């Protein structure tokens, strides 16, 4: 946002706007709302980079864990119902802020996820990073045009599955951040990593809201999770994921 | 948000906070950013209701129309590629603000949409209205738990299709706003209307980003659209929808 925008809107000199921004900057930083960056020069201006402090992130995750640790969420086969959490705009905003904080200083060009429940996570993270998001699908839909298709082994079931992404959705050499709601065996995330390769793009990182504690070799080695969820015998127990060491280290 | 929150945070008297809010209120209203409502009484406080003015909404729709009216978007069968628009957080925010403006004074409890491409629209509208959103699906996924299923006739193809929604996602008597990205025959929207009935909920309204101009009796009579899109013979022509008469009347 160039300074002239504010100068015109508020009918003030650029120097007074600049002073006001300094005050805003200090306030945002002190409250952990975000970073207000001033880019100097004729084409310069300001850029707001939202972030979250460790203490607030801990509170967010603690609230998530309390909401998740309910046996009424248990579903047959060791699955967990969390559509209500992923349909709550306030919760999504907080999750988006946490992942955006991790990649604040990295050059992310696009956020990638897989339909359906990953979409709200991707949208929220993309909103805070101010970059587009792209949706990989299990089916090929006519409204996507030509697609690139990838086969992958579903980690939890060792079935071969297919995923597809519209050819026009990603430019080569894009820096891609993968996010999803839940990781079990990691097969789906692994499939998205192959997809990033197929587009000659670069993987920047992987973030999941919840990872399952179910045993089994996991295809994905490096990722950030907010929660670890143990769902067995009609019981759901949730604990903090590895986000502290990954983000606030 | 109760006034005591601000009073504590900024270490000020409630009366000074109240004065500051009056200034904010006037600024927001003058700029068309939104409405700051003060709720009196001990449990009172403030509530921010974002809206958009007619002039800005017109600009948003004009930009959308310019982006849509490109023949490179044409897909076989008279479909239109718009995944890039629906993956752009800034565009989604503007679309969300427009639909939120329409229902500013109505009691909406939830926003409903169908996977996959309706999800970003629903999330953005729900974010501005500060209510949850629920996602109807074409498939039944294990992570949704028990579902309610509805059969409907796909308007454009006269095929019988099925959609499902998790039983726990909507409370009876909820006021539901349906949104989607694209309406052709209206069969999918019609299916979601049956779904609202099945949950003993109330339909508040229907909003779509784009409606097709393709002929054929449409099942849905009352809806708001931002654009009308004509896609035939490798050509995509886009015009304003009925939003002016529906929202800014």
UniProtKB/TrEMBL annotation, chains A, B:
Residue span(s) of domain Phosphoribosyltransferase: 84-227
UniProt protein name: Pur operon repressor PurR
Coiled-coil blocks: none
Domain spans labelled Bacterial purine repressor N-terminal: 2-50
Keywords per UniProt: DNA-binding, Transcription, Transcription regulation
Similarity-based family: Belongs to the purine/pyrimidine phosphoribosyltransferase family. PurR subfamily.
PANTHER family: HYPOXANTHINE/GUANINE PHOSPHORIBOSYLTRANSFERASE (PTHR43864), PUR OPERON REPRESSOR (PTHR43864:SF2)
Gene3D superfamilies, alphabetized: 3.40.50.2020, Winged helix-like DNA-binding domain superfamily/Winged helix DNA-binding domain
DNA-binding recorded as keyword: yes
Subunit structure: Homodimer.
SUPFAM superfamilies (UniProt xref): PRTase-like, Winged helix' DNA-binding domain
GO terms classed as biological process: negative regulation of DNA-templated transcription; negative regulation of purine nucleobase metabolic process
GO molecular function: DNA binding
């Amino acid at each position: 946002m160039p300074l002239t925008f504010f100068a015109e809107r508020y009918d003030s000199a650029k120097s007074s706007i600049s002073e006001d921004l300094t005050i805003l900057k200090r306030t945002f930083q002190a409250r952990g709302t975000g970073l207000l960056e001033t880019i100097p020069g004729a084409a310069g201006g300001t850029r707001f980079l939202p972030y979250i402090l460790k203490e607030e992130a801990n509170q967010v995750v603690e609230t998530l864990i309390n909401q998740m640790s309910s046996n009424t969420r248990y579903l047959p086969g060791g699955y967990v119902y969390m559509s209500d959490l992923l349909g709550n705009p306030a919760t999504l905003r907080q999750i988006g802020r946490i992942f955006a904080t991790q990649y604040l200083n990295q050059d992310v060009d696009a956020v990638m996820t897989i339909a359906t429940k990953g979409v709200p996570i991707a949208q929220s993270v993309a909103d805070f990073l101010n970059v587009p998001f792209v949706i990989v699908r299990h089916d090929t839909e006519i409204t996507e045009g030509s697609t690139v298709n990838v086969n992958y082994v579903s980690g939890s079931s060792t079935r071969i599955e297919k995923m597809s992404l519209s050819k026009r959705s990603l430019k080569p050499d894009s820096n891609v951040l993968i996010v999803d709601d839940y990781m079990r065996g990691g097969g789906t995330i692994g499939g998205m990593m192959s997809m990033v390769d197929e587009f000659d793009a670069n993987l920047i990182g992987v973030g999941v809201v919840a990872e399952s504690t179910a045993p089994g070799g996991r295809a994905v080695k490096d990722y950030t999770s907010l929660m670890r969820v143990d769902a067995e015998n009609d019981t759901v127990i949730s604990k903090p994921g590895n986000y502290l060491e990954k983000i606030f280290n």
